[in-house]
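Hi C.,

You asked whether I'd gotten around to modeling the 301-residue construct. I have! Everything is below, sequence then structure, no commentary in between.
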Amino acid sequence: MRALIIVMWLLHWLPLPILGRIGKALGSLLYILMKSRRHVTLTNLRLCFPEKSEAEREAIAKQHFQAYARSALERGILWWASEARLKRLIHVEPGIPFEVLESGPTILLCPHFVCLEIPGIALVLNSHFSVCTIYSRQKNQLIDEALLKGRSRFRPVTLLSRDKGVKPIIRAMREGLPFIMLPDMDFGVRDSEFVPFFGIPAATLTAPARIAAATKANVVPMITTYLPNYQGWKTTFYPAWTDYPGDDIVEATRRMNAFIEERIREAPAEYFWAHKRFKTRPPGEPSVYAKNSPDDTLPAD
């Protein structure tokens, strides 16, 4: 892993158009080699985009691997590039919502797009705010150290353990730290509800709605996508949600998934399809990822 860190450090000096093309080529290779992740990706796309042809879904899957590999290599820029270079490459639209962030507790909702490391950096680079977020320690110590240093190089970041529950999160938010929350992975049935995601029941965390209700927090989605022609990244801060979560936590969670679906349709290849989003099934329903699943129509690897 030390060699990988050294390679990433060396590559971060390259102009982004060159580094991005290297990442795209690497992604094309990984699409061929990583058969199990390709199967997961294609299964997710088949479930979420049944209206598309198999060729269209395969094209999105390949583009996804390219986008993900790009994001991995370009992370070196986030970890080591100068503040001036990052400000040139990260475009914030329409701007940092200072009034909302200063008005009280705020949840910054950051769905799993491949550039999800960038929204937090965009915020701290262009404001006086520090943030708090959930952090899971990486298996490799060198990667873990590089990731932690990269995230906190401009301003300290308060890292919270998922195992400690919501109390430390609420405490940090009430102390004035916006909470960056990644709400759209399958963590099992605990603290989740089966809510439609592209029409498929998906175990979805209700924590965004519950924390918003407990703290009276504003919920501001933020998503980073690629600019065309390797020009950099665009971080969009969306308007704070009104009347959220309301009286129905499940309906609020359904509303969140619907918003994420809309954003995915705008940049389908950049969502993290390689994750088993539908791993947890409602009682009695079979796995959608098993190769022998009755609804698995993908060709065998």
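If it helps when you're writing up: The CA atoms of residues 170 and 214 lie 8 Å apart.

Thanks,
B.
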